Fold each of these.
Amino acid sequence: MTQKREEKPKRNCLECDAILRGRKDQKFCSDYCRNAYNNRLNEDSNNYMRRINNILRKNRRILDKLNPTGKKTVDALALAEEGFNFHYITNIYETKKGVVYYYCYDRGYMKTDEGNYFLVHKQEYVK
């Protein structure tokens, strides 16, 4: 009497549909297929995030260019002429006195009462 083996369901690569051999939880036949699948899956969000990060990096470069020493006051026109986008920041810091600083990574600014902007470099104690 011969015993028949139950046939295991065939598993295929999620990207190229090749038959998978090996671990039961394997989903891809190669690193290439895994990367291609995930890149295709995240393509829309990656483009959106890439655009936002480009704006943030540009804002940081502008703040760094206008404030090489760590503290400086500039008028709004100087920031606008460089192409600074006030809609994109990475974080906000409020001092104990209620002064609000807006940051692009480690470069920040605060609007003064005169309508100018006081530019700063982030200090270690600022979270």
Amino acid sequence: MLKRLLHTRYRVDDLDKAIHFYRDVLGLEMTRTHESPRGSKLAFFKAPASDEEIEICYFPKSGPVHVQPDLTHLAFEVDDIAAFAERTAALGYPLSDGPTETSSGSIIAFIDAPEGYEIELIQKPKS
């Protein structure tokens, strides 16, 4: 029986660029790095209030990464989408979609990670 989600893996072509994006642009904590027995270089990240990690994998033997549009995304809650978007745009990562208010009153927006993985930002309505 499954107990809990531990991590999600995304493969990348440029590990240094990915580390910069997930750590310095998104502000995730890099929890560890290591090399797997087969030679993959791995970096793990987590959001402050989450236990699950994101595993970023660099393994050039698998060939180049091709992320199809709308294939997958990670979603993060933010306090203020406008402020977050201003900061990420200043770092070279402007919003790729939104902000858009949903029927529930949340505001959503998207930015793209270096390989094209979508990152959804969700600002929940104030209670």
Amino acid sequence: MIDSTQLIQIKGLRDGLLVSMSAAPWEELNAALIEQIESQRSFFQGARVALDVGSQVFHVNELSVLRDTLSERGVMLWAVVSESPTTEQTAQLLGLATRIAKPRPAESTRDAAAEGGRPSAQWIGRTLRSGTRIEFPGHVTVMGDVNPGAEIEADGSVIVWGRVRGTVRAGAGGDELAVICALAIASPQIRIGDVLLQAVERTERPCKIVLQNGALSVETWRAE
């Protein structure tokens, strides 16, 4: 049986969540999506979801059933992005958006600062469970834990008001001033940019990880 996380990928957007689907048969993709929602109810509860369904072809009745199925689970389907003209027309008939603002690959927090703007931030008010991946071109704040098997990749800093046991990478866009803060860390997968935290020790205290002289160091996280 294929792991559902290999069939769909979840990223954070300003408007909610983007669920990108692989080229597998729709029956498998639909089952994987429902499995993810059922296993992470607190994460998806009240979420606004955009689906990137690739070349999958949907007609009105099929997309209506999918929208209702998600709605029954507290998830709002607001957009469907597709390479299929039929699916795009179907989405428009149902009042769904067919275009979303995706981050540019080269966009980073450093670029935003250079333009005189401020990097955006994503607020996640729940624990991230295994199989959840958050990718965001700005700062990410999590009010909860990052469980084993969960991943965060941010161009800016990552603040976790909880325990980190999953994978966290800050400064993915090249920002060497990005930091990672958490109430506790018990993960060997902590990075800022391409630098991995070496000799990881479990810390049951608030800590701040910074990049200094090409290496990561752990400091006590204090109010400043």
